């Protein structure tokens, strides 16, 4: 398969013409063109290059530098990818479910030297956080090796599961940076609640014109997940119980539940976690609100 040298401006040009692309017949592959399905997968996943970064595109195979370190399922159809000084991307299609894909990578990637990401880069803090081992938004998977981050991002398409494997040479959950607020002596108002695996946060498909329902001393996120509201609350309830929060009222509620925990001094903190259904299938809004109560 011939290797294609194309500057990153190609993708930028394609974005400009994306509105009319659906009405055009794709050109046959040639020295200066890429298969439409490959380009659409790169655009859908947000993979991009820029002029002068030395990006080198390949078609029908995994980029050379990544091939020895990436597991590709035996039934996969490899579309291609690109590589430059900071990023390597491979795109392929598989006849698997998300669960089967996750299980395959959990089994195969450690054999190639990768370990699941456990550190969440950026701020240590509070609120809803992606599950360990997932990508930065909680979607897909993320693995680490010597500071590099490998993200496996599957997307359902009409023709099957499209998988984008992306390796970054810096940043993310694999860089080993120190959390900014690690020395903060004041207890945070809100606890950390880890989302279920593959519950991606604030995805484009979950966009709604209504603002998130965040009030003072609270936080809210939109999740892409098919987990029922009561099961999602059960997931958060187990974490709160492990960190000393006690349930108040009925814990069978499927929309919101409340917990309390003794604070220092004469106050108790009360937290309410709520699940708000969305008009968009598989998308929900999760929120937590905290207030201080005077002890009797």
Question: Layout of SSEs?
Answer:
Elements: H1 9-16, H2 18-21, H3 36-44, E1 56-59, E2 77-83, E3 87-94, H4 98-108, E4 115-116, E5 127-129, E6 141-145, E7 148-157, E8 160-168, E9 192-194, E10 200-201, E11 218-224, H5 229-242, E12 246-248, E13 256-262, E14 267-277, E15 283-294
Parallel strand pairs: 5-9
Antiparallel strand pairs: 1-2, 2-3, 3-8, 4-6, 6-7, 7-8, 10-11, 11-15, 12-13, 13-14, 14-15
Order of helices and strands: HHHEEEHEEEEEEEEHEEEE
The secondary structure category is alpha+beta
* Average of pLDDT: 76
Helix content: 10-25%
Measured distance between first and last alpha carbons: 76 Å
DSSP strand tally: 15
Unreliable residue stretches: 1-31, 177-187
SS field, number of helical segments: 5
Shape call: elongated
Q: How much of the residues is beta strand, in percent?
A: 25-35%
Give me the side-by-side strand order of the main sheet.
1-2-3-8-7-6-4
How large, in whole angstroms, is the Cα Rg? Answer: 22 Å
Largest sheet: 7 strands, antiparallel
Concise structural overview:
16% of the residues lie in helices and 31% in strands. The protein has 296 residues and is an alpha+beta fold. Residues 1-31 and 177-187 have low confidence and may be disordered.
């Amino acid at each position: 398969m011939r290797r294609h040298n194309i500057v990153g401006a190609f993708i930028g040009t394609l974005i400009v013409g994306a509105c009319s692309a659906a009405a055009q017949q794709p050109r046959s592959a040639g020295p200066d063109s890429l298969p439409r399905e490959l380009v659409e997968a790169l655009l859908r996943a947000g993979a991009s290059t820029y002029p002068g970064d030395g990006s080198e595109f390949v078609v029908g195979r995994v980029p050379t530098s990544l091939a020895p370190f990436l597991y590709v399922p035996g039934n996969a159809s490899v579309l291609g990818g690109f590589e430059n000084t900071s990023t390597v991307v491979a795109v392929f299609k598989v006849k698997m479910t998300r669960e089967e894909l996750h299980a395959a990578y959990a089994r195969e990637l450690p054999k190639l030297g990768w370990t699941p990401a456990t550190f969440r880069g950026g701020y240590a803090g509070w609120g809803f956080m992606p599950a360990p081992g997932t990508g930065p938004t909680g979607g897909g998977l993320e693995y680490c090796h010597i500071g590099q981050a490998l993200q496996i991002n599957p997307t359902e398409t009409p023709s099957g599961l499209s998988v984008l494997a992306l390796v970054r040479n810096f940043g993310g959950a694999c860089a080993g940076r120190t959390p900014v607020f690690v020395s903060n002596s004041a207890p945070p108002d809100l606890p950390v609640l880890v989302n279920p695996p593959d519950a991606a946060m604030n995805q484009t498909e979950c966009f709604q014109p209504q603002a998130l329902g965040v009030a003072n001393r609270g936080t809210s996120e939109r999740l892409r997940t098919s987990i029922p509201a009561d099961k999602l609350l059960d997931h958060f309830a187990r974490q709160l119980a492990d960190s000393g929060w006690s349930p108040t009222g009925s814990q069978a509620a499927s929309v919101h539940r409340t917990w309390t925990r003794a604070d220092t001094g004469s106050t108790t903190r009360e937290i309410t976690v709520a699940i708000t259904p969305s008009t968009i299938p598989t998308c929900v809004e999760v929120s937590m609100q905290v207030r201080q109560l005077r002890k009797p």
